[in-house]
Design goal:
The chain has 281 residues and is of the alpha/beta class. It is 40% helix and 21% strand. The chain has 2 domains: 2-67; 89-280, Rossmann fold (3-Layer(aba) Sandwich), CATH 3.40.50. The protein contains 11 helices and 11 strands. The N and C termini lie far apart (68 Å). Residues 115-190 form the Methyltransferase small domain.
Length: 281
C-alpha cells in the first residue's frame, strides 16, 4: 500500500520542478481521477493509502503531466459551460475564454432564440452543444475538417442528450452548405503560423495544429468565413467569432471591408477582447 498524502506531496513537487502552474491543483485533479473520486471523496481518503493499482495509475499520469501533456487529455474530459466534454488529442481543449461566445449569444438572443445554429470548426462540439443546451428549441449543425474531431463532437452530443438536435459533419468551413442560420458560432484557428513554435508546450506539442494555425497573420480563416457569411446568415441573424489577443481592430476592419455590420467586441473574464459579433447589412 502507498501513503496517499506522501504521494500527493511528491507529485506536487515533481510538477513544480517541471514548471507546471498550480502544481498542487493539477496533482489533485489527477489523483481524483486515479482513485475515481470527486473532491469530497478525496478528502475522505486523506490520511489513508492508495492501492498498488491506484498508485501506478497516479504515477503514470504525473509522468505524462510532467512531460507537459495537458491534464484534460490525460483524463480525457474537460468541463465547459457546466457540461462535461470528452477531449482527445484530435480536438482543442475547451477553455473558459470561449464561454464568452455563449454569454454573448445569450445576451443578444435570449429574447429571440435562434431556430438554426451553425458551428464552424466544432472540435469537441463545446460551442454548439452549450448553445443548444441554452436554446432548447433550436437545432444545430457542427462542421469540422477533421473526421476524428467530428467523431468526438458526435459522441459528446450523445453523452449530453443532444444528439437529436445536433448534426455533425466533416467538411471545410461552409463549402458543402446551402442553408442559412439564425446564429453562427466559430472559434477558428487564429494563431499566426510563425508563433506556434513559441506556444506553451501543452499547446504546441499536444493540441492539433490544424485547429491552431491561422496562416501568416492568423486571420486566413476569417477572410474565408466573412466572405461567405452573407449567404449563410439569415436576415437579422447573428454571427460570433472568437479571436486572439490584439486581433480585434484588424478583424473589425476586415468585417467592414466585406460589408458586415460590427455589433460588438466582447471582452472575456480577463478583460481581453475575445469575441466579434457581426450581422450583414
Amino acid at each position: 500500500m502507498i501513503d496517499l498524502d506522501a504521494s500527493l506531496r511528491a507529485a506536487t513537487g515533481r510538477l513544480a520542478e517541471a514548471g507546471i502552474e498550480g502544481p498542487n491543483r493539477e496533482a489533485r485533479i489527477l489523483l481524483m481521477h486515479a482513485i475515481s473520486a470527486d473532491q469530497t471523496g478525496l478528502l475522505r481518503r486523506r490520511g489513508g493509502e492508495l492501492t498498488s493499482e491506484e498508485g501506478a495509475a497516479f504515477q503514470s499520469m504525473i509522468d505524462r503531466r510532467a512531460g507537459r501533456e495537458p491534464a484534460a487529455t490525460i483524463i480525457g474530459h474537460r468541463e465547459f459551460w457546466s457540461l462535461d466534454f470528452l477531449v482527445t488529442a484530435d480536438t482543442l481543449i475547451p477553455r473558459p475564454d470561449s464561454e464568452t461566445v455563449i454569454e454573448t449569444a445569450l445576451d443578444y438572443r435570449r429574447d429571440r432564440p435562434p431556430a438554426r445554429i451553425l458551428d464552424l470548426g466544432t472540435g469537441t462540439g463545446c460551442l454548439l452543444l452549450a448553445a443548444l443546451s441554452e436554446f432548447p428549441d433550436a437545432w444545430g449543425l457542427g462542421v469540422d475538417l477533421s473526421p476524428r474531431a467530428a467523431d468526438v463532437a458526435q459522441t459528446n452530443a450523445a453523452r449530453l442528450g443532444l444528439a437529436g438536435r445536433a448534426t455533425i459533419m466533416v467538411g471545410r468551413w461552409t463549402d458543402a452548405l446551402n442553408g442559412r442560420f439564425d446564429l453562427i458560432l466559430s472559434n477558428p484557428p487564429y494563431i499566426p503560423h510563425g508563433d506556434i513554435p513559441g506556444l506553451m508546450p501543452e499547446v504546441e506539442k499536444f493540441e492539433p495544429h490544424l485547429a491552431l494555425d491561422g496562416g501568416a497573420d492568423g486571420l486566413d480563416p476569417y477572410r474565408l468565413l466573412f466572405r461567405d457569411l452573407p449567404q449563410r446568415l439569415m436576415p437579422g441573424g447573428l454571427a460570433l467569432f472568437e479571436f486572439g489577443i490584439g486581433q480585434g481592430p484588424a478583424l473589425t476592419a476586415l468585417a467592414e471591408s466585406v460589408s458586415l455590420k460590427v455589433l460588438d467586441l466582447r471582452r472575456d473574464l480577463a478583460g481581453q477582447e475575445r469575441v466579434l459579433a457581426v450581422s450583414h447589412l
